[in-house]
Amino acid sequence: MRNRFDEQLFELNREIIEMGAMCEEAIASAAKALSTGDTELAARVRENGSAIDQMERDIESRCMKLLLHQQPVARDLRLISAALKMITDMERIGDQAEDIAEIIEFLKDRKTVNVSVIEDMAREAVQMVTDSIDAFVKKDVALANKVLAHDDVVDTYFKKMKCDIIKLISEIPDDGEFALDLLMISKYFERIGDHATNIAEWVIYSVTGIHKEA
Amino acid sequence: MTSKIFKSILSAVIAVLAASLVIITGVMYRYFGTVQENQLKDELSLAAIATEQLGESYLENLKSNRYRLTWVAADGSVIFDSHADATAMENHAEREEIKEALAYGTGSSTRQSSTLTEQTIYEATRLDDGSVLRISVSRATALLLVLGMMQPIAIVIVIAILLSAWLAQRMAKHVVDPLNKLNLDKPMENDAYEELSPLLRRIHAQQMEIKNQMRILKHKQDEFEQITGNMKEALVLLDSAGKIFSINPAAKALFNIGDAYIGEDFLTVERKQNMRLALEQAKAQGHSDFRDKKNGKEYQFDLNRIDSDGKNQGVVILAFDITDRVNAEKHRREFTANVSHELKTPLQSIIGSAELMENGIVKEEDVPGFVGRIRKEASRLVMLIDDIIRLSQLDEGADMPHEDVSMLALAQEVRETLADAAKMKNISLNVSGDDGVINGVRRLLYEIIYNLCDNAIKYNNPDGSVEVSIMEDEGTVRLSVQDNGVGIAPEHQEKIFERFYRVDKSHSKQSGGTGLGLSIVKHAVQYHHGKIDISSEFGKGTLFLIEIPKDK
């Protein structure tokens, strides 16, 4: 019985890593598509979105089954409950990567005026996602704390981006839609940073049993 | 085991105790019964004699509570009874003991009383006058006796059981102790029960076998680790669940992980999609491979499923560094493209000139100029092809004849050859230094000096100077070619040895080089296991310093 439980926990762990890797790749691809304007890559990101959703449902039902059948305690219970929370954040990251990809496809060959800031921001957000998944994989609290601290960087980029967009609107008043799209993308990246922070918090919880107050 | 021995000893003791109690009680009861009967008989014979002499008066005076005496007449009527009124008593003629006494002189019988706890023993004897004197006594039955003895027996039993329990425990301990003290690590050194020696011998043999097999296994493992530990390729073995079974140092370096990853899920080490897909493919189809960049290097990953007895036992991942190969491929592609381009340029010029002349557009007086250009371009083409052939020979590492060559003599030869070119730009070309004999390939060494001097003249200002000096050391010959020409900017210094690389791309035609000279120099120096240094300052001049060992 226990053996089977351990096996199922192992499978759960593996599925979470897999889902994390999928989100990581989705957001990294979206960021890459943004800087290169590669609409094909953006389209691929959108196609992979459903796989992430499916993964979320699979993990969810596995967690429920484990909770019901095995009635885990202590560490195992923390892992499973943290998993339930984490996959929600991961799924949101996947969705937002999809949304970004959609906008990129829409933007197509529109000239992005000042993409360097948004590219930097994307890179930071991707790094946060990667670090939060890494923290889960290695059960590394220090790395998770680093992710928490890193959120400020992305927030700062977002503020900077807002200023740039305001400037952009005053410079080319006819292209309001483009400015809004840029704002949306940067907001999405900012949100992704927040989701990565959440994941990191749940990693800390699953290891130490203490959940940081938001 | 102790408790089992204890239990069996205790139960045996209790059983023996109970049996002996029963037997002793039985024997004792019978013995006392006999004694009592005899006593009764004695008593009766005394009473009979007394009764015969004294008659009823004796019986009446006999005060005995223990015995009951009954005197019965020959017809069975009771004459006297010590415990009851004789007249009220019924006729005793039918009583067994009376009947016997009347018939044989004596009689006896035993009758159970109504309560079962008592029985009465009767003894009767016939007196001389034909009457019968009977004596009787009541005594307890064996059951009552046992019941009466219950208390002392119980005490004895409890004491006996406690004693035997204590003894049993001690004995059990004593028996088991040698077993507990057995040293199973060294089974043959034990001095316990003889009955155990086959077992101990067996254990010893098995231990030896295990030790032997462990040694073989360890040896094999060491061998495996030696091989995988020293190989440059990264090797990871996964079990059927995808956990890391073995990982060699190269793989640890490749994935940036420590030692604690044995038994972990491989996904925790590498979770990239291409690896996940490749793993799945390898599990499904038996093999997969992909290329990926890692730590700034290009790696080829080969994954193979391990099958044993038709069952999937895991996956082996082998990764090797193909950075050099990829770079070489890139170089080759670039070289091919460059060669085609460089070969095409003079040919275009030749074709252009020839076409103009063919169509009669060229004036008569211009024809020599065009023909001259054709000749010049053609000879440039030949030069280029010569250089390419030389380079490819060097690339192939073809064996070339070695001989002792004096570098000084070679340098002087070069000076003769380049004298005209130097004169045209009014450049002084000076050769000085030691003899510098090297055992090497004459043609290649000549190429080194020639190309360096040629460049020094070509990229020099008018009225400049080129100094060639040769210094001989213990085991090496150093050649330096110094000019005070245009110099090479630092950003170009790295690349000038690449094929077809030109510092000033627009003036390549003017200077007339092939772009392969320094590349040939580099290869020729490498062929002789030498090294080449360059120090240059833009606008001030360049110094090439070459060091070649005298023997290869």
Structure notes:
The complex is a heterodimer of chains A (214) and B (552). With 214 residues, chain A is mostly helical. Chain A has a single domain, classed as Up-down Bundle (Methane Monooxygenase Hydroxylase, Chain G, domain 1). Helix content of chain A is 88%, strand content 0%. Chain A has six helices and no strands. In chain A, helix 5 packs antiparallel against helix 6. Chain B is an alpha+beta fold and 552 residues long. Chain B has five domains: 2-147, Beta-Lactamase, CATH 3.30.450.20; 182-228, no CATH class; 231-319, 2-Layer Sandwich (Beta-Lactamase); 326-395, Signal transduction histidine kinase, dimerisation/phosphotransfer (DHp) domain (Helix Hairpins, Orthogonal Bundle), CATH 1.10.287; 400-549, Histidine kinase-like ATPase, C-terminal domain (Heat Shock Protein 90), CATH 3.30.565.10. Chain B contains 14 helices and 17 strands. Chain B has helices at residues 2-54, 56-61, 96-104, 142-180, 197-230, 249-255, 273-285, 323-358, 367-396, 407-424, 442-458, 490-493, 508-511, 517-527, and strands at 68-72, 78-81, 106-112, 118-126, 132-140, 234-239, 244-247, 287-294, 297-308, 311-321, 403-406, 428-433, 437-440, 465-472, 476-483, 531-537, 541-549. Chain A binds chain B through residues 10, 13-14, 17-18, 20-22, 24-25, 133, 137-138, and chain B through 241-242, 265, 267-268, 271-273, 276.
Task: Outline the secondary-structure elements.
The complex is a heterodimer of chains A (214) and B (552).
Chain A: H1 2-36, H2 39-70, H3 74-107, H4 115-138, H5 141-171, H6 176-208
Chain B: H1 2-54, H2 56-61, E1 68-72, E2 78-81, H3 96-104, E3 106-112, E4 118-126, E5 132-140, H4 142-180, H5 197-230, E6 234-239, E7 244-247, H6 249-255, H7 273-285, E8 287-294, E9 297-308, E10 311-321, H8 323-358, H9 367-396, E11 403-406, H10 407-424, E12 428-433, E13 437-440, H11 442-458, E14 465-472, E15 476-483, H12 490-493, H13 508-511, H14 517-527, E16 531-537, E17 541-549
Parallel strand pairs in B: 12-14
Antiparallel strand pairs in B: 1-2, 1-5, 3-4, 4-5, 6-7, 6-10, 8-9, 9-10, 11-13, 14-15, 15-17, 16-17
Helix pairs in contact in B: 1-4, 8-9, 9-14, 10-11, 11-14
